[in-house]
Amino acid sequence: MKHEAEAEAKVLPLELVEKILLWLPVKSLIQFRCVSKKWLSLILDSRFVKLHYDTADAAPTNKNTRLLYLSSEVPEARCVDLEAPIRGDYALQLPLCCRHFCLSILGSSRGFILLRIHVYGAPLLLWNPVTGSYRSVPYPVLDPDASCWTGSDNLWGGLGYDESSDDYLVVVGWGNGHEWRPQWEYFSVRTNSWKTIECGHLPPHLVTVESALFCNGVLYWLAVKDMEVNFVIVAFDLARKHLSLVSFPTSGGSGRLLNLFAGCLGLYYLNFTEDHQKFEIWVMKELSWTKLNVVLPYAHGIHPLCLTKGELVGIKNNELVKVSDKGVSVESLRISCCDYNLKMVMFTQSLLSLPDEFGCTGEEQGK
User: Does the predicted model carry a pTM greater than 0.90?
Assistant: First the structure.
């Protein structure tokens, strides 16, 4: 009895254990599920899972930030930890239903990635790479022969989280016939239904050129608004269900692309001057643009992806590279599954699950 009492005294209270586990990366939590039944129950508890995600998301350095890249020809997903030295990547297991088809990435939010399968009749997929769970999302009921559902063009989308209703929304847009008037709809995971988005005030020939990026309750797309290839930023507020346009920080430049930087909406584009060419990087904070003091000559040939710990992460040829804010190379990694149409997405690892108010089928929990 004495030894049992001493052993019991050495065990940390579960409340203290929870506070410690909240600050650990997802990889450690997965390993620690084997410590005891109490730890397993705690780590799988939905309240703890949400609190863990919110704690990591609010931290200055998120240990769960990852870059996922996907080969388009032979579907293979691999992952890189961007907060650590990029010495290697590792494979992720795609859902069985899409391993033999061409895939593309439409967006990510809170650990979930929105996948599009380029085959007739296939739904969209909401996939958590950490847990392996996924849920299918059918397209809106339209012309089943519409080319935008199976082709690589004419369809754009995004994934976001509406905190006000604790709901994930899948947003899609597509061209409507020869007049090319885009239609927009969103799918509520909680209600399992599609609804139309009013977009009459948007330019009639609007065409997005990238997948959406989700930031602070808003989805953003880079888009072309007219035949003269003038770029705009399209924003969809998930709480208000409202589409709008966001102005660029400055005029001029070319090759403008949209990215997320340090949890904010980011933008970089190539600026031509009389004596040289360089990338300019801007970040939107509190609805205003701020130019970053980052030295990145065009000669570097880098396609920026994000900023982490004051370093710029980007793609150069078939390598993932990190450079300092002075343009000095820090490290690089040759990408394992590289092709000319490589898809990439930033995501945050999480153990979160999707709302299951209507019940989950085997497919939705499949791996």
Answer: no
